[in-house]
Amino acid sequence: MYIFQQHQWLPCLMKNKSAFHLLLAFLILSQGWAADAQIPSIGQQGTTRAVIIGISDYQNDQIPDLQFADVDAAAFAAFLQSDAGGKVPAENIRLLLNEKATKGQMGAELTWLIQATKKGDQAIIYFAGHGDMENITIDQHGFLLAYDATNANYWLGGAFDIIYLKSMVKTLALQNGAKVLLITDACRAGKLAGGDAGVQATAERLAEQFANEVKILSCQPNQFSLEGADWGGGRGLFSYYLINGLKGLADGLADNNKDLSVNLLELQLYLFQNIPVQAALKGKSQIPKIEGDLSSVLYRVNEDTLMAMLDRSNQATPMFASIDSRSRSITADTITHPLYRQFQQALDRGQLLYPEDGSAYALFQQMQNEESLQPLLNDVRLKLAARLQDDAQQAINDYIQSSPQEMARRWKLSDTYQAYPEYLGKAAALLGPDNFQYKGLRARQAYFEGLNLRLLADQVVRRDSLLHLAIQKQEEALALDSMAAYAYNELGLCYLRLKKKEEALAYFQKTHTLSPAWVIPIANMGTALQDMGKIEEAIEKAREAIAIRESYPVPHYNLGIIALRQGDNETAREQFLKAVQYDPTYVDAYYALAYVYWAEDNYGPAREALFRTIELSPSKFDAYNLLATIAKKTGNYAEAEATYRQALAVDPNFSLAYYNLGELYLIQNNYPAAEESFRAYLQLKPEDADGMVGLSAALSQQEQFGPALEWLEKALGNGYSNFSNLRSNSNFEGLRDRPEFQVLLERFGE
To answer: Using CA atoms, how far apart are residues 478 and 586, in angstroms rounded to an integer?
Structure first.
């Protein structure tokens, strides 16, 4: 037997905020549990365990908060602990409210439920929060959004795939032989990634059959589900009357036989009598929809509870005493054991793997050898696995939101960032390959490994081999999770750096198809289109990204680069200033801004922007080069030489610095040094005609006219055609007096 209830949506009446409430409740009972009025109710046979989740306050400010999701979850927990709900012991209830309900913590507690539940037990899963489907054409996976969900790219984490939920219910009901009550109260307030269609599609996924089932839908199609302060002091309309009906107010409505039990037909009549009337008072329409064996008994009625309710009907459902997720069956000796206390302290400090002495992981290893701690080991293992996921998930969330602090950590390839693959690998090993989270954790582990390789490649000159290794890691991630949009995006970035623009664009487009509300791949498409010379399409993508998120700096940078190439310095400067305003750590934007100022001969602001660039990225050799060029332009030759040398210290293969040094030495009449610099340049750029002319000038000034003519001939043969420079440049005065010079110029078509 399976009870299902689904809410469509509804604008919330509180504080004029748009709010929608999608509520689905399932009661799934194992095969052979026939619908018989004589069968004891749920909560009154076997051992009952529950995981209850309620999220009203989401971490991401782009996900609209809800009003009463956590209150509804609390009310249901109170019901379970009451006489009417079967007096479920506190140690059998794992409660996650708001910030406690991260994706990792949800997975840990649901794993506990599967492991602890045996044949004949009752397993209850309750979720109140947002439900959404990001892409309803390709991504057919609905999601329940955890506290740490992002507002886009649910595949990247922070969202609980309904496919996993279905698998759990089937495991509990069919494999474990348990009775399962699954209630998902997926409220909707404001715009999520999938829009209205995403919420409706998620409802359809939740409505699909998990096992033998009876369904209760909170409203008819195209109706909305209400929540507000009028019910229980602040509740969802359906949730409020559902619990009251189960407590006994529905008893006797079908046949006027108050037999101290509530069956499905009685509950249906009770809901029909109350919900449409209450909705009509608000000028709305909400009629529940119920399907299934109407004789199925849902709950036995506690007479004292029923009498109390009749005496104080319409009062708020009391909140329950705080319940944490630690098993209360643990003995005092266990929870005061030094190793256990040290483990908890290490978790609180975030010392999960390091330092090795005293880390939570090391302490967990030691605890396995203590006999008195054996009853606690599974809980400790799951808790540690959850925490190991949480930090990596937070880094992912911050990246999706392009947090300036997170982007700075990425660019600098911080030690903590490099630790995430190990964190995720350890979490996967703790849970084991049979756990539903295992493949996802391994996929994200491979993603971070590839990401770190790509970030390392960004810091070196010869980077192709690192990029190919990074690509292998992202392909490994996709082999584990073919819908991993984040891996496709990273592949696009790798191919963009390999100058394979078409391949990069294809991967960014795939990412966007899977995750249409994620702004980063849209901006990346603009970058690829710009590199391909498709300027109008690149501008369109940049504007599309800005429309989704004005404060994302990359599309502003892209628009600035396009304007700069088109000679529109004013627009370029405006866009670069926006980019660094939104992200004060955006190295490339500072450098581009400096270039604009330099092109306008505005050297003061140019130098400031370059100093900021170097402060953020000491290895950015081209920033040193431009800074030295400004020093040369303003006559600060000593500073220019020293700064060019700094650029070469960062990258000995930076050819342009050698060329600029050669020109600087020509200005200073240091011709041997100029010759040395131009020769170093030509070793790196052997076909460059300008370098050949520079070397010819340095040799000419040293009266090495034969070699000077040879290099000049090579330059002309390689396409050099600035004959006026050769006629006027003072460095060629001695060479111009030789008849071979005139013959050479005439031969090449002057």
So the answer is: 30
Residue 500's φ and ψ, nearest 5 degrees, are: -100, 80
Burial class (CB in 10 A: 0-12, 13-18, 19+), 357: exposed
Under DSSP, the state recorded for 315 is S
Residues 492-529 as b or e (16 or more Cβ within 10 Å = b):
bbbbbbbeebebbbbbbbbbbebbbbbbbbbbbbbbbb
pLDDT digits (tens, 9 = 90+) for 165-221: 888 888 888 888 888 777 777 755 456 766 665 556 555 656 565 654 445 666 554
- Identify any residues that bridge with 214 across adjacent strands, giving them in sequence order: 27
Query: What would the DSSP string read from start to end of 97-141?
Result: EGGG--HHHHHHHHHHHHHH--TT-EEEEEEEEEEE-S-SSS---
Q: Which residues have CB under 8 Å from 177's CB, separation 6+?
A: 30, 118, 119, 120
Tracing tokens 């905020």 back to the chain, one arrives at 17
Q: How many domains are contained in the chain?
A: 3
- Can you give the length of the chain in residues? 750
pLDDT at 222 over 90: no
290 and 170 in a common domain? yes
List, in order, residues 6 or more apart from 166 with CB less than 8 Å away.
Answer: 208, 210
Q: Is 125 a member of any domain?
A: yes
| Six-digit token string for 694 | 């520079």
- Same domain, residue pair 227 and 103: yes
- 556, 601: one domain: yes
Q: What is the pLDDT of residues 466-502, one digit of tens each?
A: 999 999 999 999 999 888 888 999 999 999 999 999 9
CB 218 within 8 A of CB 51: no
273-302 residue pLDDT tens:
887 888 888 888 877 766 556 776 767 777
Count how many Cα atoms sit within 13 Å of the Cα of residue 358 in the half-sphere of its side chain: 7
Q: How far apart are CA 169 and CA 456, in angstroms?
A: 43
CA distance linking residue 181 with residue 42, whole number of Å: 9
pTM: 0.71
Is residue 8 in some structural domain? no
Closest to 149 in 3D by CA, of 538, 570, 415, 517 = 517
Q: Indicate if 177 and 242 belong to the same structural domain.
A: yes
- What's the CA gap between 742 and 233, in Å, rounded? 98
Shared domain for 21 and 97, answered yes or no, is yes
Same domain, 590 and 688: no
The C-alpha atoms of residue 44 and residue 299 are separated, in whole angstroms, by 8
What residues contact 369, with CB distance under 8 A and at least 6 apart?
A: none
In whole angstroms, give the CA distance from residue 203 to residue 67.
Answer: 20
Taking the CA atoms of residue 211, residue 213, residue 216 and residue 217 in that order, the dihedral angle to the nearest 10 degrees is 40
- Of 319, 238, 301, 268, nearest to 25 by C-alpha is 238
Q: Which domain holds residue 699?
A: 654-747
- Domain closes at, from 294, 321, 348: 321
Q: What is the pLDDT of residues 410-464, one digit of tens each?
A: 666 667 777 889 999 999 999 999 888 899 899 999 999 999 999 889 877 788 9
d(CA 193, CA 151): 6
Please report, for the domain that includes residue 700, its CATH number: 1.25.40.10
Alpha carbon distance 632, 615 (integer Å): 21
Report yes or no on 369 lying in a domain: no
Among candidate residues 290, 321, 352, the one where a domain is terminated: 321
703 shares a domain with 590 = no
Q: Which helix (H) or strand (E) holds 240?
A: helix 237-244
Integer Cα distance of 595 and 283 in angstroms: 61
3-state secondary structure of 658: helix
**Cα separation of 218 and 597, whole Å?**
62
Pick from 93, 726, 149, 164: which is nearest to 437 by CA?
164
Q: Are residues 528 and 665 in the same domain?
A: no
Q: Does residue 445 sit within a domain?
A: no
Residue written as token pair 């009154």: 44
